[in-house]
TrEMBL record:
InterPro entries with a match to the protein in the record: Cupin_2, QDO-like, RmlC-like_jellyroll, RmlC_Cupin_sf
Ranges of residues in domain Cupin type-2: 53-116
Cross-referenced Pfam families: Cupin_2
Organism: Limimaricola pyoseonensis
Protein name per its UniProtKB record: Cupin domain protein
Domain of life (superkingdom): Bacteria
Length: 169
């Protein structure tokens, strides 16, 4: 933990200054861990991601975890189980309950969004990302398929298929 972050283990209070979050990357996607199971007493994880146009999370489901997405900047296409796919701009929110098939794709030049999830699934994001290279905190190297699939098995993520290219609502 940094010198400016503050944590009271006895009460569970936690404060993080801007710029103090742990940064990891998966390819060009930048992932900031704002809160983890360790800092929330196991209550939740909060992740701030910025991704480039075309970055896609294929359709998948979680066997154990819930996850929610809140768009801060840019535009995503979001598909949820049997619902029509939607364009999601700033302020849009989606909840993916355990077992719900979902996926998304970045449509704007870049998009920034929050992921709110269980600590267990937060660690999945750590497993599929790497510490960025060098002092400039540039993008990390893309992970190989074997590493990603091993993380999926460990954290109960099942890929269902590619992201649909259907019309959006």
């Amino acid at each position: 933990m940094s010198m400016t972050a503050a944590e009271d283990q006895a009460t569970g209070a936690y404060f993080l200054e801007p710029g103090e979050a742990e940064l990891r990357c998966s390819g060009a996607t930048r992932t900031f861990f704002l809160a983890t199971g360790d800092t929330t007493g196991g209550a939740f994880a909060l992740i701030d991601e910025t991704a480039r146009q075309g970055e896609t999370v294929p359709l998948h489901r979680h066997s154990v975890d819930h996850e929610a997405l809140y768009v801060i900047e840019g535009e995503l296409s979001v598909c949820l189980d049997k619902l029509p796919c939607h364009r999601a701009g700033p302020g849009a929110f989606a909840h993916f309950a355990q077992g719900v098939v979902h996926g998304f794709r970045v449509e704007s030049e870049t998009a920034r969004y929050l992921l709110i999830t269980t600590p267990h699934h937060g660690e999945f994001y750590r497993a599929i990302s790497r510490t960025p290279r060098g002092e400039g905190k540039g993008p990390g190297q893309p992970l190989d398929d074997d590493t990603i699939m091993a993380a999926c098995r460990t954290y109960g993520v099942e890929f269902i298929g590619p992201f649909p290219m259907a019309d959006l609502v």
